[in-house]
Every structure is written in structure tokens, then in C-alpha cells.
Amino acid sequence: MTGAPQDSLFRAPPPAEQERMVEAILFASAAPVTVGELHARLPHGCDAPAALERLAKRYEGRGIRLQRVGDAWAMRTAPDLAFLMTRETVETRRLSRAAIETLAIVAYHQPVTRAEIEEIRGVSVSRGTVEQLMEMDWIKLGQRRQTPGRPVTFVVTRAFLDHFGLSSPRDLPGLKELRAAGLLEGTPPPTEAQGVEDDAPDDMFERSPPEES
Amino acid sequence: MTGAPQDSLFRAPPPAEQERMVEAILFASAAPVTVGELHARLPHGCDAPAALERLAKRYEGRGIRLQRVGDAWAMRTAPDLAFLMTRETVETRRLSRAAIETLAIVAYHQPVTRAEIEEIRGVSVSRGTVEQLMEMDWIKLGQRRQTPGRPVTFVVTRAFLDHFGLSSPRDLPGLKELRAAGLLEGTPPPTEAQGVEDDAPDDMFERSPPEES
Amino acid sequence: MAEDFIEGPARDDVAERLAAEALIVDVDGFEGPLDLLLTLARTQKVDLRRVSVLQLARQYLTFVERARALRIELAADYLVMAAWLAFLKSRLLLPPDPEEEGPSAEDLAAHLAFQLERLEAMRTAAARLMARDQLGRDVFARGEPQGLERSRKVIWTATLLDLMQGYARTRTRDDFRPFVMDRQGIWTMEEALERLRPIIGAVGDWTDLMAFLPDGWDGDPGRRRSATASTFAATLEMAKNGRLELRQDDMFGPIRLRAARA
């Protein structure tokens, strides 16, 4: 759709106009808007990624900023102004320790099976924990593992990324270090001294199914 | 409260900072915010009207703008971009039972008057049903019946035939075929069996109005 | 096992012993044996990668023994772990047996240490995750989302099957209409009288009753029966009124009639 103005009956709006259109769409929506949705709503021939880039730059250092959430974008208040927002704060349900750990394991190990979560935590995962996280729309089912029994796997959602202000699962804090230390594997690194798994699966998150739109 | 930094223990934030604070508050608020509310939420010594003025200027010509709502302020998408905020969704819905039956009677008995449709269905036909079918361009007015009152008749349209993939109304399966297909379950009155149905459906459409029942 | 009590790992460390006491009182607070092991490992105050698994096994077994002495119910998985650690401990203390198959005691110990380190890492990661700026707490979305105004265009649709079923429904409904006498196969006496009245005056000679049946009513037996009976009843009525004469020459012979002679 982008860069193909010749197949358009009408000329695409000028870049500045595209930018303010994207601005209006993102502003009006509380949920992140995917690039695909932007293209569907913008006039034909618009280049949403370019407009988003210019817009993100424009909002740098402002009270609102553009936040990338997977393949979507959202406008969010700057975190340093949280103290002004006490009025808007929504009381979220307090998660149990089991739920928080399970969430972290899904995020760092995704796609991960229930058995793997249990192996890492050393206890069985209660059904309620997984259900609560799914109900919060923070984890969802991924593709089935192609191993005997074809167990279901869990992956994190876009709402999870949005909630924690992550552009992608790669931005999880400490992900690189954990991977380098071999702590995202099922077995200890072969020799502990030089157990630097630099070639550890970088495509960990590509293996997860495409984000829903 | 404004312009009185001397009564503040702490120095008020610099103007640019006040501006982004107002920006974030207006963005996150569910309703327009009054100047009084702004002062109550901003750090001590802030000048909300001045910040609002700078913010309004900053958003001039952008996709979002500052708007006064009574004695309060809100951020709104620019009015000229309203077209981006609507999306035409096309929804397909199944026709109501009344409409289907009316349509079927027109198709099988055309040209047919409203009184005849009512006689066959056994209930009165609502104006809305006929209007809906005419609006959909599936039935249209035929010639007036040459009987007292010269009532209008209805016939099916080309669009109707196209939709149902029929080359002519004669392609509609006759009563006998309907029964063979299990669509007509009741047993017919004994004598009607010979006289009427043997030559269906061929003269079904010439034979109007329906004489039976 | 008794030896563990004598030279217990926490013998000369009062703080550690107090901590172990606290652990026991708190046994319900643990999320399984691995959680308990991790807590015990922390008391060694070393990098988890250098944790002494042998010492850890002793600590755990001591914990289980004390819990039993205090008659604290321990879940089965704590006891399974205890058995496994006792086995591991003995393997670690004995010189390796070259005949032995499977992973060495060192491998098993390394795996346990890895499991602890991995759990610890996930806990740290979880804490870091929860410490991030969170939506609705630190970062806020548009408070008054406009939403997409949807102008809905409805396309009505129906299939040929819908149409046929709809038609079938209207026709089937007829078949279930309230019962009325179905007169299509019946020739009533009124109709017979109606038919006979204008023509009877011209019947001079004796004529077979069957000749007076209406057209098309002499084929189907049911219809013929109805028409015959009605016509006969009508002739009786007319004979009573003196308008015609009837005769039947023999039993089951044809019934004949003629106009009454004045």
C-alpha cells in the first residue's frame, strides 16, 4: 500500500497532513492502533510508518508520547508525570506471587508450556492462575508445541506489552543477560565458566504466532 | 493563586514543564478540566491559564487541538479530520422470517397483490416488510390488477434473480419438488394433489391469483 | 541422618539457626520444595552458582527432620525431595563409581543449582517487570477515547434455501389450518337439487338416475358415490313434492325417473 501513489486515483495527502491524521487517530483511541489499521483508515497512498516516525519525534519530551506496542502504536502520558495522575489511577487487582512469577516465565520463555512453567517454579500451576492472566488479556495461547502430546503453549499479548510499556518482547528487562547466562534454557549450560550462549535462539519471539490485530 | 510564587515553599516548575503537565492532564482526563481543577492538580505556583495558552498555540494546525468547553478545557481531534473517525462497516444480516415469506410468495405467485400475500401468509403484511424488499430492489411494482379497486401487484426484479442465481422465476422449485426435498412436510388436501400440482411449476406463474386456500 | 543433627550445618551460626526455626514455623509460606531450597541457599550468602549443594542437601534434610520432630505436616513433595537429596548427598560423599550408569552426582548437583538459579532469575525478572511504569498506574491512555464512530450499512441477505423454506412454511401452514369440511370431493344435495330443478320438467320418458350426475363426477368412485347419493336424495325430495316420479323395476336394478304427470 505504501509508496505506490501511481495506482491511486487520488494523490496521497502531503506528509504534514498525513502526520496530523495519524496524530488524530492515535489520540482518539485508548487502545494501540496497528499500522494496518492506520492504513485502512488513512486516505489511499499514505505512508503510516513515515508519519509515525515524524510524529514520535515531534512528541519527544512532551507530556504525551508515542509508544510502540508490538506492531501497533499508542499515545500515552509521559511516565515522569505519573504523580499528577492520581485521579486517573485505576485500582488494579493485586496479583498473587504465583501469578506474577507465571507471567514473568511466560514473557521470558515464550512460547512456553504449562509443564515448563511448573518445571521452573517447582510447583504445579493452579488453573486459576493461568485463567486469571488470560482473563486480564496478558497471556494467550500460542501454537501447540510439536512434541508428543502436542501441548499448548502460552505467549504474552499486545495488551501485556502495552501495560508494561514494552515495544516488543525483546525489550523485556534483562532478557539479554538471562539468555547469555543460559537461564532461559531447560538445562544448565555445558561448562559454567564460558557458558555464554551468544548464539542462543535470537528468534525466540519470531517463533511465537503473529500478534493478533 | 497565579502569579504568587513568593508564597510557595518550592519554586514552581519552569513554563515548558507546566505546559507538558497540563498536556498530560488534559489527555488522560475523561472530562474537560477547569482551570481551578488544573491548579489543584498542578504543583504549587503553576500558572494554568498561561500554560493553556501556550499549549493551544502549540497545537494550532495539528491533528489535535485545545478546545474550551464552557469554563473547562479539553483536547479534541481537529474537526476537519472527523472523516477519519468514522468507519463504514458493512454488516450482512439475514432477512426476517416475515420478509422471506413475503418474498417467497411474490416469487412463486407473481404478479401478486398485497391482499393475496396476506391471504396466503394468513397474517397482515407490514408496510415495512414490503418497503424493505422494494428498497433492496428484490421486488417492484407490477401492473395494476384489472379488478375492482385496481390494486397494485408485486413482481420480483432482475436483482432478485441475480442474487438467487435464477435465470427466471420459473427456475424456482415447485411445490412437488419442495415436498420431495422434505421442505414441505404437511400432507396436501387429497384432491389438490392431482389437479394443481401435476402441472406445477410450469404454469405456476401464469396462474394468478392463487386459487387454492 | 543423626550425624546431621550433631554437626548440623548451622551449629555455630545462631542467626542461621534462628532463621531455620522461622522457616519451619512458616512452612505454609513456601511454594514447594524448590522455593524452600532457594531460601535455604540464600542463607549460604554466596553466588547461587557457587552454592554448595552438599550443604544445601544437609540444610534441607535438617529442615525436614525438625519439621517432623515438631509434628508439622509436610506435603508429599517435600518428602520426595528429601529422599532425593539424601540420595544425592550419599552419592556426593562417596567416591564416584565408574560402573555407575546415568548422570554423575556432580551433574545432578549442577542441575539442582541451575534450577535454583533459574528460579531466582525469574523472580528477579518478575520484580523488574512489576517495577516498570504500568499503564493505568504510571502511564495513562486517552481518558476520553472517541472510539471509531461506526456508520453501519446493513446488507440483508437470504439464500435460495431460505426462500424455499419460507415458501414451504407458508404452504405447510395451510395444511394445519383449523378443520373445516373439505368439500372438494362432495356433491351436496343442495347442488343436486339446483342441477335437477331446471331440467326435470323436460324429462318425459323414464330416464336412468345416473344420467343426471354432473359432468366429471362419474369417474372417481368416491366422487361418483357422493354425486349418486345426493342426486338420489334430491329426486326423493322432488318426488315428495310431487314434481317427479321414480321407479325401480327389480332389486338393485337401475333407478329411473320422469317428470310428474299433472
TrEMBL record, chains A, B:
Example of a GO biological process term: cell division
Basic and acidic residues biased stretches: 204-213
Database matches in InterPro entries: ScpB_csome_segregation (IPR005234), WH-like_DNA-bd_sf (IPR036388), WH_DNA-bd_sf (IPR036390)
Disordered: annotated span: 177-213
Listed Pfam families: SMC_ScpB
Entry keyword set: Cell cycle, Cell division, Chromosome partition, Cytoplasm
Protein name per UniProt: Segregation and condensation protein B
TrEMBL record, chain C:
InterPro entries recorded: ScpA
Domain of life where this protein originates: Bacteria
Pfam families xref list: SMC_ScpA (PF02616)
PANTHER family hit by this protein: SEGREGATION AND CONDENSATION PROTEIN A (PTHR33969)
Name of the protein in its database record: Segregation and condensation protein A
Gene that produces this protein: scpA_1
